[in-house]
Amino acid sequence: MFYCSQVACTNDGDHRIKNKFDSGSLKVTAALWPAYLYPGNIAGKDFDPEDIIEGLFHGYLLEQVIKHVFMSPSSVLKAGTSNGTCACNAKLHGMTEVGAEHIAYAVVQAHFAVSLLKKLKDRDTLFYYTDFYTRIVNLIHGRRDGEWVNSLLGHYNK
Questions:
Q1: Burial of residue 74 (number of CB atoms within 10 Å: 0-12, 13-18, 19+)
Q2: CA 147, CA 105: separation in Å to the nearest integer?
Q3: Mapping DSSP to helix (H, G, I), strand (E, B) and coil, where does residue 128 land?
Q4: DSSP 3-state assignment of 48?
Q5: How many Å apart are CA 111 and CA 47, to the nearest integer?
Q6: Could you say which of 89, 100, 130, 135 would form a disulfide bridge with 140 (CB–CB 3.0 to 4.6 Å)?
Q7: What are the pLDDT tens digits along the chain (158 aa)?
Q8: Is 124 helix (H, G, I), strand (E, B) or coil?
Q9: What does DSSP say about strands 33-34 and 127-128: parallel, antiparallel, or unpaired?
Q10: Going by C-beta distance under 8 Å and a sequence separation of 6 or more, which residues neighbour residue 147?
């Protein structure tokens, strides 16, 4: 799995950070942003340690999970179209737009999907899913930079 922090963003090519994860000197907690939350041909490739908010929640995997949840599982297979015979999930549940809670839910689902857990539970070693969810919601709702929030939500509500 790939992680970003204020210190570094890593993928399998950066052995120094991987060694820190392997040795346990760098703990995987809800305080680290997974690289799949950032855009780039390789997850997190466009991560900027000087501006960790830039590109956050614009990663390919997250975008596919949001499509899956809001439209349908089949919508992920083709560009914006659904092959399903039922109404989309958003319509069935009265969701008219993507909000902070929806993004956080999708991030949690994405994180679980790439984890080694066989069943979703709150804790995965030192990683707490409820803390992760709350951290994302609080970041989006508490952000003083309204332009960033509007841009993020606009990205998913176009």
A1: middle
A2: 22
A3: strand
A4: coil
A5: 18
A6: 100
A7: 445 543 444 444 556 766 776 676 766 666 678 888 999 888 778 888 888 899 999 999 899 888 887 776 666 666 555 555 566 666 776 777 899 999 999 998 888 887 766 766 666 667 778 888 999 999 999 998 899 999 999 999 98
A8: strand
A9: unpaired
A10: none
pTM of the full predicted structure?
0.73
Alpha-carbon span 72 to 51, nearest angstrom: 33
- Residue in 12, 102, 16 with CA at minimum distance from that of residue 65: 102
Burial label, 4 (beta-carbon count in 10 A; 0-12, 13-18, 19+): buried
**Longest distance between any two alpha carbons in the chain, whole Å:** 50
CA–CA separation, 75 and 135 (whole Å): 28
Q: Which residues touch 84 (CB under 8 Å, ≥6 apart)?
A: 72, 73, 74, 75
Q: CA dist 44 to 101, 111, 132, 137, 150, Å?
A: 22, 14, 18, 21, 22
Q: How many residues does the chain have?
A: 158
